Amino acid sequence: MKLSTKAICSFAALTVTVSTLLSGEPQSGGGISNRQKGSETKQDLPGDFHSYYGQKLNRYRDLNRRIARIDLDADLNYDGSIRQGDQQDQGGFEQTPPGLILGEGEMSKIVVEVKPYRIDFDGDVVVGLEVCGINRAAESGEFGSFEEEQQAVGRVRVWRDAARTELLLDSANPQMRLIEFAISADRYPANLPSIIPRFVYVEGVKPSGAYLGDIRLLGTVAHRGKGDPTRGVDTPSPPLKLFRTAFDHILITVQEEPVRKDFVNNNAEGVWVSPASRSTK
C-alpha cells in the first residue's frame, strides 16, 4: 500500500507531538533537553544508606525495627491527580532523574503520609523534611561548600499550603533546609494530624543547572528519647536507636516553563498552581 505525502506528513507530526509529551518538554520553550541525566549518587539512595543517620536498610528490614513509615507522593504523570499506590506516581519515577518537573514559579502538591507501626515506645516520633542540592558530577552527590551548591543547582521553596501563608523550607537558605515535627508518645498516633502537614506545596524558584534531578526533598521518621535536642544537619550521628529511621524522597527538576500536562479532572484537586494563577511574592 502506498501512502500519500499528506498521510506521511500527518503521521510525522503526530510522532513529534507524542515524543514531545513524553520527553517532558514545556508548553513553550525552556525545556530540559539541554540538561544531562548524570550518574547515580549516594544522595539518591537514602533508604539504603544515609550519612545523616548512618544506617543501612538491609540490616534492619523487619518492620518491628521501624517505628513508622513515611511516604512522599507527587503527580509524576502530570494528570492532576495523586493516587496512593499508583506506580506512575511513585517508585523509580520519584528517585530517578528528572523526578518531579516544575516550571519556574509553578507549585505542585506533595502528599506526606506517615503510617504508624509501633506504639510501645517512650520519647518522641520525629518527622523531618529536608531539601538539598545534589552534585551529579560526583559519586558522593555532595558539594564542597554551600556556595558551590547554590551556583550549580536550582532552587525550590516548600510551603504549607497553596496560598503560601507559611514557608517551611527554602533550598537557598541554610537556616531553612530542614524542619522537624516532634510527636509525643502520650497521644500517638491520634496527634499526628494536628502536627504533621498532610501535604505541602513545592515551588520552583530557580531553574536547575547542568543536571536533571539536582534537588532532593527527603522525608524521615525517627525515634528519639525525651529530652534529646533537635539535631542540625551537621551534627554527628548518635548511636543506633531502638527503632531505625525510615526514609522516602523525591527528586526535583526546575525548568524555565511548566511541563505539558493532560489533566483527567481539570486539576480539581488543586495539585498544580501555575505562576499566572497567583500573585508574585
Describe the structure.
This protein is α+β, with helices and mostly antiparallel strands and 281 residues long. The N terminus is likely disordered. It is 12% helix and 28% strand. The chain is globular, with a radius of gyration of 20 Å. Strands 3, 5, 7, 8, 10 and 13 form a six-stranded antiparallel beta sheet that branches. It has a five-stranded mixed beta sheet with strand order 4-12-11-6-9. The protein has four helices and 13 strands. β7 and β8 form a beta hairpin.
Largest sheet composition? 6 strands, antiparallel
Number of strands: 13
The residue-averaged pLDDT reads 78
Described by its quaternary structure, the protein is: single chain
Rg is 20 Å
Roughly how many Å apart are the termini?
60 Å
Strand content is: 25-35%
Indicate the percent of residues in helices.
10-25%
Structural class: alpha+beta
Order of helices and strands: HEEEHEEEHEEEHEEEE
Number of helices: 4
Low-confidence stretches: 1-23, 47-54, 57-61, 230-241
| Overall form | globular
What is the secondary structure topology, with strand pairs?
Elements: H1 5-23, E1 49-50, E2 55-56, E3 68-73, H2 92-95, E4 100-103, E5 107-116, E6 124-133, H3 146-152, E7 155-159, E8 167-170, E9 178-184, H4 192-195, E10 199-206, E11 215-224, E12 246-255, E13 272-273
Parallel strand pairs: 4-12
Antiparallel strand pairs: 1-2, 3-5, 5-10, 5-13, 6-9, 6-11, 7-8, 7-10, 11-12
